[in-house]
Amino acid sequence: MQNYETEATWHYHNGTKHPNGMLLNRFHAYHPSHRPSPYKIYKNVPQVSIPLDKTPIGISALDAISMENSYRHTIPDLGVLGRILYFSSGITKKIKFQGLGEIDFRAASCTGALYHIEIYIICKDISGLEAGVYHFDPKHMKLDTIRLGDFRKFISNATAEEQFTSQAPVILVFTDVFSRNSIKYQSREYRHAFWDSGTILANTLAITSAHKISSKVITGFVDSKICQLLGLSISEEAPIAIVPIGQTVQEAPAFPPLQEINIEAVSSDYEIEYPEINAMHESSCLLTEAEVASWRRQITLEEKYSARLIPLGKNITVQEPLEKTIIRRGSTRKFSLEPITFDQLSTILNHATSRTNADFASQKSLSDIYIIANAVDGLESGSYYFVKEKNSLEQLRKGNFRHASGNLGLDQDLPYDASVTIFFMSNLDKILGHFGNRGYRVAQIDAAITGGKMYLASYALGLGATGLTFYDDLVTNFFSPHAENRETMFLMAIGKKEKTT
Predict the structure, then answer these.
(1) Residue 308 burial by CB count (10 A; 0-12/13-18/19+): exposed, middle or buried?
(2) Are 437 and 5 in contact (CB under 8 A)?
(3) Cα separations (Å) of 71 from 74, 164, 210?
(4) Res 32: pLDDT
(5) pLDDT value of residue 320
(6) What's the distance, Cα to Cα, between the start and end of the chain in Å?
(7) Residue of 159, 254, 280, 365 with fewest CB within 10 Å of its CB?
């Protein structure tokens, strides 16, 4: 099976490493004036207006990202679905930039503010919305109608009858428009597909939990089937994750005949193709329901700890509702050099690393968390490894590593100025051995969901945060020998935002 020919992943991963990956052109240039439209436009299709109520329902961001998501027999109506879509990927603010005009910013962060992740909805009849297949238009808060009829069973079949998907009244599908992001980031875009869908998913999981509606991230499915249902060309726009929302007592009925979609749609202003992206995605596709069923197994990663461990501090209680935190959230552009407290760092780690409800998840995350503490009151400056099972930090090295922090984060000011930089690293060889090439998707999205939770936790505590790119091998070298054989998946910088006058 092509999925287990894992040299494809290593070719892509090593070829897209900074600074000199062979699949990257060092002389590539991007100007913001070339930014593609961040919206997919369907022409001449019926639309459904989505009512939007932004009123907080009283659950804090810290509680929402760490709540156990196991609610039963819940069916959202169109109003609640609208809130889930808005607080996942809706427009929360507009900012004017000289020479670029006004730019819409969304509920979750995105590399380069290019917003290349789209959301589709497959549902039964719910209050306010007829059964069908829809596309979310965040600019106008409307749903574009792609098909009418109940096609949930089609999705369920494509996931090899995954239980949550089989019983969900509403199913979300997250896709990636490759060229919308590759225009700036070239072939490295495929990593961003999972980074950026992961931060959105963190919001989705949080807002569904706040509403006491079950949800689960599904990464195992027959890719071509999902594309067929949504009318996508997999070389241009590809499914990344499926999220069943809510639960019914009965499983979905047989789906109607599947007609070919003949709808004009524009996904991107630019037709830029990077064969390496298509090759990586194709090599990680699952081809049949039987292959999906055999793929979906849990991974257990066991570690033994003998080093001296530093217990985390106390958790801080925050009352601000999740909705206000999401609207206020942004990607910090300048940190002060002021320290954060050990309790703040402890709260972020405790809440953001709660287990994600996903088809790939065991009790332990697929990502290991390494930290450079530049300025944390109550914690000695140095490098650390987070031992989730012991709720503790293992100190690796003492010292002032601000310059190293900045260097590892692509020689940028943000990781130098931040109070902490947090690196998500995975034993990719082990994950690929278990999941095949699809494990590359899983490792990226697992880290990004936790990173998205850290965004929300940091802003809930009045701090700033931003996701950054990195020099891959230098990160591994810095944290070795402890991080030997681990690859970097994601980087978060957290600290106090510099006050503007």
Answers:
(1) exposed
(2) yes
(3) 7, 11, 11
(4) 87
(5) 94
(6) 59
(7) 254
Amino acid at 200: I
- Largest pairwise CA distance in the chain: 65
What pLDDT does 149 receive? 97
**145 forms bridges with which residues in the sheet?**
134
d(CA 119, CA 60): 25
Using DSSP, state whether 243 is helix, strand or coil.
strand
Fold of the 309-495 domain: NADH Oxidase (3.40.109)
Whole-number Å distance between alpha carbons of 103 and 92:
11
Domain 2-295, second-level architecture: 3-Layer(aba) Sandwich (3.40)
The per-residue pLDDT for 299 is 62
pLDDT tens digits, 270-297: 888 899 999 999 999 999 999 999 998 7
Separation between Cα atoms, residue 389 and residue 66, nearest integer Å:
16
Q: Are 92 and 331 in contact (CB under 8 A)?
A: no
Instruction: Please count the other Cβ atoms lying within 10 Å of the Cβ belonging to residue 290.
Output: 11
Separation CA 268–CA 26 (nearest Å): 24
Residue ranges of the chain that CATH labels 3.40.109.10: 2-295, 309-495
